[in-house]
Amino acid sequence: MKLEDRELVAQLCAARAGVRVDPEKTYLIESRLGPVARREGFGSVADMLAILRERREDKLAWSIVEAMAHAESAFFRDREPFALFRDEVLPTLARARETEPVRIWSAACAAGQEAYSLAMIVEDERGRLPGLKVELFGTDISERQLEKAQSGLFTQFEVQRGLPIRQLVRHFEQADDMWRVSPRLRQMVRWRRVNLVADLSTAGRFDVIFCRYVLSTLVEPMKGRLLINLARALTPEGFLFLGEQESVAGLSDAFQPVAGRPGLYARDPAYRVAA
Question: Measured at the alpha carbon of residue 50, what is the angle toward residues 44 and 52, in degrees to the nearest 5?
Fold first, then answer.
C-alpha cells in the first residue's frame, strides 16, 4: 500500500471527523479498510482509494472514515465509572431533577455496550430511586455500529467481556448462539448518528455525558473543538465522564476535575458558553 494512499486516508479522517490516523500503520489501515473495499465491490483497498481520489464520492468517503474511527467497546468497561454513576451521580441528579428526567448521553458508543450498561444501571436502581425518570441517548459516527446497537444482538464473546452473569440473566435473552438485550432496555435508548466535532447546537442539553476514549483519538486541533461542543451540550450542574487517563488540561477551561474521581469532570462555574 503506497504512502500516498495511507496519507489520503489520514487526511480524510482528520478533516471529516478529527480522527487521528498514523500513515505508518499500514496493517491497521489495510485491515480496517479491507472489508469496506470488498463490500463496495473493489478488488483491493488501493483500487478503492484510487476511485475516491478520482471521484471524491461522499458515501464512500464516509464509509472509510467510519471504518477507521471504529473503537473497541465492552460492557461496563473499566467498572469504576459505572459504579460512580450508580452510587453518586445518578442519585444526586435524580434528587435535583425531581419530576424532570435526567438526560444521559453515551457519545461514541460504538455497538452500544456502554449505553446498554447505563440502561441496566437505571433499571436496577429504580427501586432505590422512586420516581426516577431518565432519557438515554446513544450516538456514534458509524451507521453500521448503530444498526448493531439497535438490534441489541451480541455474541457470547461480547457478553463475556465485562458483563456480570446476574446482569446477563436479568437483562438478556438467548437467541440461538447469541444474546439479545431485553425489549425494555432496547426501548430505553434512542440512537442517532452524530459527528462529535461537527455542529452539535441541535443536540440538546444533557445532565451526564459519557465521552470516554474519544479525546485521545483525535488530531490536536479537534480536541478543543470536541470539548467546546461537550461544554455546550452539558447542563451547568452536569457531569462529563472521560477516559480515566484522559485530561482536559491545556485544552479547555470549561471543565474542572472532580477531586478523587479520575475521569470525572464538572462544568467550571466561571465558564460561559459562547453562543
Answer: 105
